[in-house]
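Request: Give me one sample?
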Amino acid sequence: MNIAPIRPLQRPGHLLRTRMTRFAGYAPGLALAAALALLGWQLARIPGLGLFGPMACTLLAAVAFRRLFGYSQAWAPGVRFGTTKVLRAAIVLFGLKLPLDAVLQQGLPLLTRSVGTLAFSMAAGLALGRVLKADRQLTLLLAVGTGICGAAAIAAVSPLVAAREDRTATAAGLIAIVGTAAAIASMLLADVLPLSGPAYGLWTGLTLHEIAHVAMAASAGGPDALESGMLAKLARVFLLVPLCLALHWRNSRLARRQPASEKEAAAGAAASFPWFLIGFLVMSLLGSGLAAAGWPLPPRAMAGISTLTTILLTIAMAGMGLNVNVLALRHAVRPIAVLLIVSALLSGLTLLTLL
């Protein structure tokens, strides 16, 4: 009978030194990501670039930085920390901005339309990707970003599909660029389409990729359009939770069915349960519960939380951008074609249902 050796207790001083050493390893990469995030915020202040928003500007700046100056392995631990821990913290905080009670009050029709958006994006994206022989992993990430909430959804789903970091970053960058173009096109059509303000807002909320894109485009239709657009978009964001849980369940089943030689890799994907989504739901329920009890968070507090969430997401985008090799983008022509076609079809078909 083998008895495992008893490990000596670690003294508090030793634990502190270990954690400080680990943080020191994270510091270079996190500092670089924070500097690129600050640069992205400044770039977003430039007329024209402001349409892309700070996250997209940061991601593009990080891609350019790697292309011009290279990528040191000393940055890798901090960059990885930013694209995992920092990102998940941002998604948890984002839950406070999702009023579940407001979404549920809209009833089944809004949720049904949101499910339809996700189902169409996934089915059409994967089918078209197969026809065009596009990279399956990148196509899947783009389909998720199109159906739910852009870069944040891509980053949340990527570990559940064992996506490579460069593909995750490429998908986030493409969805930001195409989504910005779609938002601008929607604004130009605001006075042309035969839609009421709320219907126009619903159209933008059901079809555009990022929350910032919906806010920008829906505002062109007035306050009612902005309200309906944001509610529709938040309903789509809510679908991130069941989608991630479904992917985790699928990974668990595959891990049990695969042969022993492949079980280790499959078990790794199955083990990556998205616990941060539980925090996302808890924060959403907390915000809704406080509002229902008559104790809503003060506007200044909500504004501060919103700013902090954006900062954390921007740092995560910087980390993703540092993982992108520009030369590898030449292989993304077919996934880009899939993204453009699916986005156009989603927009057109949704518009037909609202006329």
About this structure: The mean pLDDT is 80.
